[in-house]
Amino acid sequence: MKCNAGGLDRALRVVVGLGLLSLVFVGPETPYGWIGLVPLLTGAVGFCPLYPIFKINTCKVKSG
Length: 64
Known about the structure:
By secondary structure, this protein is mainly alpha-helical. The chain has helices at 7-25, 37-45, 51-54.
């Protein structure tokens, strides 16, 4: 898998993922918080499976 998520993109995904995941344990304790695993994992890995479909790449590649 080629990296297609840049640094800021990955950081935001991890923060949003942790925020959603916290809903499972704190606050309303809703099971919908498990959806937070998706952005958390894509942020950790650096690859979003939807980006190639929409031809998006936020990862800056160093040339040279």
